């Protein structure tokens, strides 16, 4: 998320920067404070950003680092007419008030000339102490210390204010608000973009993109979901109300003006005119666990089912293999994304069989990131972000069939069976343990 937002703000992520996987603190080289503020106006992963004045693996190293920090960079924030306060944050440890005061007093060598104001200071300074990730083995002294000037907070309050629990219209697979905003950030969604979701469902992914000023639209094969009909997904509610639909969701957050429309359509069939239509495609395809993947079929197909959606509305649906879903999605993105536009989607994985080779590829799309979210001990899903780097030509239409590259992806088709086989084994083990 951070690397995507840096590029959106005009910055560049350097591979030489310090990435400490087992730490909540991350040192970044950001060219300007303005860019740092722009980053924090979007991120839901980062809590705060600071101008780093000094750091070290012990208090002595921290103080030495602070003494080496250029005085001319400090002085604008330490003037006699200004007010300030010092805040202490410890990760994986709680300090007493006396311990905090002692640590603050130890910074008396800094040239503070202003007055302390705890309620409404002009400048806020933070001491950040990292005591590791293991709550069962907390060291006496921090393993790393940082001191800096607070610049801005992230947007983590969006997770609560857009919570699915408070949303007007939800379904069985409505996307968690935090993940929805992360996906929009991976897609580098910006004001006046046009964002499309081919498996729109109840529109959870449209909401986060609309929040960032993009115009949003989507399609789904389920007539009832698009029109807000049928049984409700909420506990103690049998049927959906008269105004439970995607438009009502956007209206709930004051985003209705960004809503273009949602269509009942099959994502495997061409319904759009040829050309580069969308700035981002952000979606969560069905995996066959809570919702079955379906596409339009014919009466002659061996696997078919007739479904009744309204009084006079019938359609025939057939199974839609996961491998076909992803290749149709990549082909569509390669054809309909603008140059530099991004495709962001979830790919379900059976972990014992996972290799990089099973990530679907397309010659027009470059893989930007591949992030894992654990679902169980044996399954997970990968948030795949791809960027369009080459114009789509007719010869690219079936490029995935070349060189036998298509075969490894067929493993996705049995994800449902593998998912439930693991669940069955776990239940059997729990029953066996209970009998003991």
Automatic annotation (TrEMBL):
The keyword Secreted does not apply. Part of the heterodimeric TRMT11-TRM112 methyltransferase complex; this complex forms an active tRNA methyltransferase, where TRMT112 acts as an activator of the catalytic subunit TRMT11. Keywords: Cytoplasm, Methyltransferase, RNA-binding, S-adenosyl-L-methionine, Transferase, tRNA processing, tRNA-binding. One of its GO terms (cellular component) is cytoplasm. Its EC number is 2.1.1.214. One of its GO terms (molecular function) is tRNA binding. SUPFAM superfamilies: S-adenosyl-L-methionine-dependent methyltransferases. This is tRNA (guanine(10)-N(2))-methyltransferase TRMT11. Residues 166-292 form the Ribosomal RNA large subunit methyltransferase K/L-like methyltransferase domain. GO terms for biological process: methylation; tRNA processing.
């Amino acid at each position: 998320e951070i690397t995507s937002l840096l590029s959106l703000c005009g910055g560049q992520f350097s591979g030489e920067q310090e990435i400490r996987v087992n730490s909540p603190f991350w040192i970044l080289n950001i060219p300007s404070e303005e860019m740092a503020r722009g980053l924090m106006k979007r991120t839901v992963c980062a809590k705060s950003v600071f101008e780093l004045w000094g750091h070290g693996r012990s208090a002595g190293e921290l103080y030495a680092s602070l003494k080496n920090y250029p005085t001319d960079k400090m002085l604008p924030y330490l003037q006699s007419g200004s007010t300030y306060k010092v805040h202490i944050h410890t990760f994986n440890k709680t300090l007493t008030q006396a311990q905090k005061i002692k640590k603050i007093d130890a910074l008396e060598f800094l040239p503070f000339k202003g007055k302390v104001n705890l309620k409404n200071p002009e400048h806020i300074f933070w001491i950040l102490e990292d005591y590791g990730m293991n709550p069962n083995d907390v060291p006496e002294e921090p393993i790393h210390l940082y001191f800096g000037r607070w610049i801005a907070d992230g947007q983590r309050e969006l997770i609560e204010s857009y919570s699915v629990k408070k949303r007007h219209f939800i379904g069985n697979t409505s996307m968690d608000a935090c993940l929805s905003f992360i996906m929009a950030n991976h897609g580098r969604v910006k004001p006046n973009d046009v964002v499309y979701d081919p498996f729109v469902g109840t529109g959870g992914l449209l909401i986060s993109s609309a929040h960032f000023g993009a115009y949003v639209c989507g399609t789904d094969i389920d007539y009832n979901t698009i029109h807000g009909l049928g049984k409700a997904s909420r506990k103690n509610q049998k049927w959906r109300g008269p105004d439970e639909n995607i438009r009502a969701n956007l209206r709930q957050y004051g985003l209705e003006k960004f809503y273009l429309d949602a269509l009942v359509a099959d994502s495997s069939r061409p319904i759009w005119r040829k050309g580069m239509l969308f700035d981002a495609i952000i979606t969560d395809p069905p995996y066959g666990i809570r919702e079955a993947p379906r596409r339009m079929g014919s009466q002659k197909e061996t696997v078919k089912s007739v479904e009744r959606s309204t009084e006079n509305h019938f359609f025939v649906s057939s199974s839609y293999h996961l491998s076909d879903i992803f290749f149709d999605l990549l082909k569509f993105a390669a054809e309909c994304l603008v140059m530099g536009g991004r495709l962001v989607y979830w790919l379900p994985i059976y972990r014992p069989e996972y290799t990089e080779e099973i990530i679907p590829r397309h010659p027009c799309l470059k893989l930007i990131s591949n992030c894992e979210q654990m679902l169980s001990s044996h399954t997970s899903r990968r948030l795949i972000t791809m960027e369009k780097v080459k114009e789509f030509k007719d010869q690219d239409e079936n490029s995935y069939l070349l060189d036998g590259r298509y075969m490894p992806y067929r493993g996705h088709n049995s994800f449902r069976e593998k998912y439930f086989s693991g669940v069955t084994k776990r239940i059997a083990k729990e029953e066996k343990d209970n009998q003991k």
